[in-house]
Design a protein that fits this description.
Blueprint: H1 2-18, E1 24-29, E2 43-50, E3 56-63, E4 74-78, H2 86-92, E5 97-99, E6 110-112, E7 122-126, E8 136-137, E9 144-146, H3 147-164, E10 173-178, H4 182-197, E11 206-212, H5 220-231, H6 237-247, H7 259-272, E12 300-301, E13 304-305, H8 309-319, H9 322-328, E14 347-349, H10 356-362, E15 368-374, H11 382-391, E16 395-405, E17 408-417, E18 423-429, H12 436-439, H13 441-455
Helix pairs in contact: 3-4, 4-10, 6-7
Length: 457
């Protein structure tokens, strides 16, 4: 009897200590404007307060797995930027819905994504950092963000989310990201893993991470663009050799007194100025600032729009509709105009510029890792990611080989041995841009499905 009483006391004390973490709001969304009928999946949206006195309100979308939600893994997914909304991933990348190409001038239509990852995963999308998407702050000071705060706010978010969703506490948990968000993701994975080892409450059953065309160093990938441009025959050998001689591989911070380097870099910039960096084989489309139009109008070709920026306009149009905000349970008066990427009003400090050490530390953790890149991406070239992975000096478990989807080469892969039975799987996606699942959804869907099946063994 005494043992039972002491257990009750311990539980009550624990709950009292965690009470500040448990203030959140969540709503179930059964219908969305633009989609006919009820949603064939369970969608939850809500806010979780973080930071000082929880004044920063982070908006999130949680989609339960359409397979077996209380067994399937949970993947927290960050979009790049910084300042790009989670709705970008939800509709344009790996989410359960897509924007319909056929836009008649009214509210954009929605359709199911046959390659949405929620067919096999529970997905959490969050508008991070504050000022992104529908996230907001109750104070002006709260709008000042940084990479370090991104990590701190995300960790608090996860603590509160798992307290609010105890049925998912035993699910395998993964953190994923694309592009710039590779910077805060490394430190966040390490922080969550340290809590897991220390048996922190709430229990977050972290098992690994998934990163797509990630930024490890905010300067180095700028340097590797020159090498990538040379390898892809976008610049001549003579210019590349002159750049290397005069700039010594440093293009992110050129000495203003180094006139030879400045001249070479200007020549390089002129040559590649009309190249579409996210996918070098696709046309360069320019969106007119503040106007919902694309200078090069979209043309349908095998159901694909030539100007991918057109989808951004569709998403902005949809998310700024009053009925959409009501359906998503966005708090009235907290946000003005929705922008898929808030690049002008975001008060953000890049206080983490190199996180290679964090990813190196993670090679010694009991975690599985998947890193995938696109071979036609010049914004964060795959050779930059390979450079950092090679620098970790891991042993090769499965040497470089092709991987296939429907009998065709979908890319190449190499697997590295980390700790015990844990591996880092590196994958290139053939013909993809930045990031791969936006350009090659079928191939990446198959790759993700296979990897999770392997990582859970």
């Amino acid at each position: 009897m005494g043992w039972r009483c002491s257990c009750v006391v311990v539980v009550l004390v624990t709950l009292m200590l965690l009470l500040p973490f448990m203030v959140s709001s969540a709503s179930i969304v059964k219908n969305l404007p633009g989609f006919e009928g009820d949603l064939p999946f369970k969608l939850e949206t809500g806010y979780i307060g973080v930071g000082e006195e929880a004044k920063v309100q982070i908006f999130y979308y949680f989609v339960e797995s359409q397979r077996n939600p209380f067994i399937d893994p949970i993947l927290l997914w960050f979009i790049g930027g910084p300042g790009c909304s989670a709705l970008s991933a939800f509709f344009l990348e790996n989410g359960p819905l897509r924007m319909d190409d056929n836009y008649s001038g009214n509210l954009p239509k929605l359709k199911l994504n046959p390659y949405g990852w929620t067919h096999m995963l529970n997905m959490i999308y969050i508008d991070m950092p504050v000022g992104t998407g529908f996230s907001y702050s109750e104070t002006q000071e709260g709008y000042y963000g940084s990479a370090t705060l991104w990590v701190e706010h995300s960790y608090t978010f996860l603590q509160k989310w798992f307290l609010d969703h105890p049925n998912f506490s035993s699910n395998p948990f993964y953190i994923g990201c694309g592009s710039y968000s590779g910077i805060p993701t490394g430190p966040l994975v390490q922080k969550v893993y340290e809590g897991y080892i220390a048996k922190a409450v709430p229990h977050i059953n972290i098992k690994g991470y998934v990163i797509a065309s990630p930024a490890f160093d905010t300067y180095h990938y700028i340097d590797t663009r020159i090498l990538y441009a040379y390898h892809m025959t976008l610049i001549p050998k003579e210019l590349y050799e002159s750049l290397e001689e005069n700039c010594k591989g440093n293009y992110a911070n050129i000495d203003p007194d180094n006139t030879k380097c400045l001249s070479d870099y200007q020549d390089y910039s002129q040559i590649v100025r009309y190249i579409n960096e996210p996918q070098i084989l696709e046309p360069l489309c320019i969106t007119t600032p503040g106007v919902n139009q694309v200078i090069q109008q979209p043309v349908q070709d095998d159901q694909e729009l030539r100007c991918r920026s057109y989808y951004n306009i569709l998403l902005n149009t949809w998310a700024n509709d009053e009925n959409v905000r009501k359906a998503l349970h966005v708090r009235e008066g907290t946000k003005g105009e929705f922008l898929i990427c808030n690049r002008t009003d975001l008060a953000y400090t890049h206080d983490l510029t190199n996180v290679v050490e964090y990813y190196l530390n993670l090679t010694h953790a009991n975690l599985q890792a998947l890193v995938y890149c696109s071979d036609l991406d010049m914004s964060i070239p795959h050779i930059d990611t390979q450079f950092w992975i090679k620098s970790f000096n891991m042993s090769i478990h499965d040497k470089w080989r092709a991987w296939f989807v429907e009998g065709q080469v979908a890319g190449f892969t190499e697997i590295y041995k980390m700790k015990a039975d844990h591996y880092l799987t590196y994958v290139t996606v053939k013909g993809a841009g930045h990031v791969a699942h936006r350009y090659k959804p079928k191939e990446v869907y198959n790759m993700i499905k296979r990897w999770f099946s392997f990582s859970l063994i």
